[in-house]
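Subject: Nucleotide sugar epimerase structure
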Amino acid sequence: MIFIPGCAGFIGFSTTLALLKEGLQCVGVDNLNQYYDIRMKQKRLSILKEYSNFTFYETNIENFEALKLIFQIHKFDSIINLAARAGVRYSMQNPFVYLSTNTLGTLNLFELAKQFGVEKMVLASTSSLYAGEQLPFREDYCVNKPLSVYAVSKKAMEGLANSYYQLYGIDVTMLRYFTVYGPYGRPDMSIFRFIKWIYEGSSVVIFGDGNQSRDFTYIDDVVDATVKGLKKVGCETFNVGGNTSYSLNYVIGLIEENLGKKAHNVYKEFHKADVTATRADFSKIKQILGWEPKTSLEEGIKKLCKWYVENEKFLRDISIQESDR
């Protein structure tokens, strides 16, 4: 049985769904916060609840006593912690919640894993730790100058993982995800926004000149890496990205091509918490976990645009703004 905090989030939902389809028993928790439009989370959750091998509890990982009750009810073989406060920019406005969820919440899970004999944990880390480092990013970089509070909270989480591995033998896989996109994705993320704006004929807001680039990773590949992360490795960190980097302008061009519509771009000042480029060296995860990305950006954008058009009736009212303020 697998415990999945954050099961109504983008990666959490997609990973839980894949495991349920394999017939595995999954217990999920989520606090259904309103950082972005809660209707997206409710939609994801409604899909998961169609499976008889899924159990859900609405709570958050900062609530130790609530989690302890769940651990007393169920016997878990492993934990895939995909509960997190995400968003680099918002961490500048409300830094407290990032340390509370991403760090204290993870500490709660490690303590419960120790108490209840859970031997394996998979953690969602981030490529944001590499701010200022040389491309391509490698796991052996020191990452001792995180730029955002979000990145700081994830670095602290990784420190906890090393501590609980060395002291208590809890096996931990830490996955540094690189700009994940795909169906049922976060509506506050750039690609979702670009598709919605272009489809509806609204202005496409770009912070900077659009030449900043990202190692975009399609959700199916991310799920594959996350599931492979259940393998016993000791305590290791892995990049989940494709060693490719594409500009926002190129992404917008692909969306225009797939939707058959023209973007109306509006350029604004580059945000000081952003980085100009990301690109992952994924040789370590390929060697140890046997993972490599299979979906090209061109194929991924095509799939996502098709999904968006097919689900436009539901998506037209989904807000693309961060709302938990």
